[in-house]
Design goal:
The structure is a single chain. The chain has 4 domains: 159 residues, Aconitase, domain 3 (2-Layer Sandwich), CATH 3.30.499.10; 113 residues, no CATH class; 110 residues, 2-Layer Sandwich (Aconitase, domain 3), CATH 3.30.499; 126 residues, Phosphohistidine domain (Glucose Oxidase, domain 1, 3-Layer(bba) Sandwich), CATH 3.50.30.10. With 567 residues, the chain is an alpha/beta fold. The strands form 5 sheets. An 8-stranded mixed beta sheet has the order 15-22-21-17-18-19-20-16. The chain has a 5-stranded parallel beta sheet with strand order 12-11-10-13-14, with helices on both faces. Helix content is 34%, strand content 16%. The protein has 18 helices and 22 strands. The chain starts with 7 loop residues before the first helix and ends with a strand. 55% of the residues are buried. The protein binds FE3-S4 cluster (F3S). FE3-S4 cluster (F3S) binds next to α15.
């Protein structure tokens, strides 16, 4: 494949797979059972991403294993009633056309495991979509790294992934023990807990103790409903949040998740302990600061809702008349099942929409015209302002449904806003400051993408999630309360510990490159596949394994292969 005997498209795909293997010292390639491909909404891909996919399709790329697609930017059958423009719809169709010609199934959901793509315990897969990665590893016991969108596509075309990271036993052991000492019972509280822990640990595999949940079988087919199904729904929300505030692709819950129950080796020994006494820091961080008079939209289904979650929404809305718009976002196959059961009719009679194929984060919300959203998803709450420009309120499903009926968010019992520093960081790195020393400094690292460039450093002590964290059209950091918020990455030597958040971030880096707004180079403590693949396809020089604590914003930095000279 690498020699080009099977064509240029396969060679290009294998180059990505092999580069990742080289970065992470993989000893071999693994055959994979399935692929979940993220990077589908035209909103996130832009023209640059669409052309990237078309090029690959034109070269004859074709998936050789079962491959499913993440949500697109609209409901394919009902985009007009969402308020999506003709222009956007045409471009979105072009994206799907490119994927279809590569043999990727148009499932358009972030919950492929609710639509028949259910990897078995121990199976190797190559999934992008951070919430689905978390679910596959933690709830199903399958094995996948956090593939960036183009990395997953490369795996689909080659049928291989490199054997590193979460494919290996030693990397599936818990890295942190999380003792939960406050009540966590309702689904949105699990989501808040995930957000808090992801933000605290950044990356790793947390081991939760003290959560009251029913143990789950790794095979959901054996217990499609009842308490096990409810536990899986709760873990779906928690895992999505863990993967949005951090780069967490695997967690264990003592006595609950399959590996925690069946594999003695994964339990923690001598790992740091994080104690959670209160969820309030997450609750406060997950609502935006601006006053919200009325709620324009209530959004349920991030990740896409299960049949049981749809049932709860329908029960809560039977006979109601909504004042706000309501979207319940789902996989098309789940919508079809809900329709057959009469659930869609109940929700739509009340004035809500059950929308397939898309979600609030990937739809073109700027052209649809909403200003505020209420949700029970911590992942959506974290992305809504920076990525969709929406003011946010976060709370239980019941409170969200009541906001949809009343048209406003009831603030009774809500504590005041947290100060920005209330959620402590454990990174332990020095704060960003302008360069204070003139002493020349030479550092060495490991080359991820070879390059020879120079420029001024822009240093972040916090991880960066490119999708929703950096605006691909301006190069500005837009993540709320990020240490670099408001600063431009364009033309800078961008220094940060590692990537986090969405696996579509690779395409954001690619778009920055096409717009002339990419960083001149990226320097990391530890390369993460999403950023590594983004740098590779955008041609941005990248080095990791660098002692980034010694770098300061404003230093003049020369990157020369593995050597970094600073003054
Ligand atoms: Fe899925 Fe969209 Fe949420 S892709 S996880 S519903 S942000």
């Amino acid at each position: 494949m690498l020699s080009g005997e099977r064509g240029g498209a396969v060679r290009r795909a294998m180059e990505i797979v092999v580069t990742l293997g080289r970065i992470y010292d993989a000893q071999r390639l693994l055959p994979i059972q399935s692929v979940q491909v993220a990077g589908v909404s035209y909103r996130n891909l832009g023209e640059a991403g669409l052309e990237f996919l078309r090029d690959w399709a034109r070269e004859g790329a074709r998936a050789c294993v079962s491959a499913t697609l993440n949500p697109a930017g609209m409901d394919m059958n009902n985009w007009r009633r969402m308020g999506v423009s003709e222009r956007f719809a045409r471009k979105q169709m072009d994206v799907l056309e490119a994927y279809s010609s590569m043999g990727i199934q148009r499932t358009c959901t972030c919950t492929p495991y609710l639509s028949g793509n259910v990897p078995k315990f121990g199976q190797h897969v190559a999934w992008s979509e951070s919430s689905a990665v978390s679910y596959a590893n933690s709830v199903l016991g399958a094995r996948t790294n956090r593939e960036g969108g183009p990395g997953a596509l490369a795996a689909a075309i080659t049928g291989r992934t490199a054997d590193y990271g979460l494919h290996l036993d030693e990397n599936r052991r818990a890295t942190h023990r999380v003792e939960v000492r406050c009540p966590v019972r309702r689904p949105y509280e699990f989501a808040a807990l995930g957000y808090l822990v992801g933000r605290e640990i950044g990356k790793g595999a947390p081991w939760f103790v003290g959560l009251e949940l029913s143990p789950i079988d790794a095979d959901p087919v054996r217990a499609p409903d009842g308490p096990e199904a409810r536990t899986r729904d709760v873990l779906k929300l928690m895992g999505a949040a863990l993967a949005s505030s951090g780069a967490v692709g695997l967690y264990h819950v003592e006595g609950v998740t399959p590996e925690a129950c069946a594999v003695p080796d994964v339990s923690p020994k001598d790992v740091p302990t994080l104690t959670i006494e209160s969820l309030e820091p997450a609750m406060a961080a997950l609502r935006t600061r601006a006053p919200v008079q009325s709620i324009d939209l209530v959004a349920i289904g991030c990740p896409h809702a299960s049949l049981d979650e749809l049932r709860q929404v329908a029960e809560g809305l039977r006979g109601a008349h909504l004042s706000s718009d309501l979207w319940v976002t789902v996989a098309r196959s789940v919508r079809d099942q809900a329709k057959a059961l009469g659930l869609v009719e109940i929700i739509e009679d009340a004035g809500g929409l059950v929308i397939a194929d898309t979600c609030v984060v990937v739809a073109p919300m700027h052209e649809i015209g909403y200003r505020s959203v209420a949700t029970n998803s911590a992942k959506l709450a974290a992305y809504a302002l920076p990525h969709a420009g929406l003011q946010v309120r976060f709370g239980s499903l019941e409170r969200c449904l009541s906001a949809a009926v009343d048209g406003h968010w009831d603030t009774v019992g809500e504590t005041p806003m947290a100060c920005p520093g209330q959620v402590a960081t454990t990174m332990g790195l020095v704060p960003t400051s302008e360069a204070s020393t003139k002493m020349p400094l030479t550092l060495r690292g490991r080359v991820i993408v070879e390059g020879h460039v120079s420029g001024l450093a822009l240093v972040s002590t916090e991880p960066i999630g490119f999708l929703g964290g950096v605006d691909p059209d301006t190069g500005l950091v837009i993540e709320r309360e990020h240490v670099l918020e408001g600063q431009s990455v364009a033309g800078r030597i961008l220094v940060f510990p590692f990537g986090k958040g969405s696996t579509v971030g690779s395409y954001t880096i690619y778009r920055l490159g096409k717009a002339g707004l990419a960083p001149r180079a990226i320097i990391n403590l530890e390369a993460e596949p999403v950023v590594a693949v983004g740098a590779l396809i955008a041609g941005v020089p990248m080095i990791d394994k660098v002692d980034i604590c010694r770098l300061r914003t404003g230093m003049h930095v020369v990157v020369h292969g593995e050597v970094i000279r600073c003054e």
